[in-house]
Amino acid sequence: MVGIKRATKPIIERLKDQERSGAPAKFRMEQVVGLFAIACSEPEDYGRPISDWTARELAEEMVKQDIVESISPRHVGRLLESAQIKPHQSRYWLTPPPG
Question: What is this structure's pTM?
Answer without folding.
Answer: 0.67
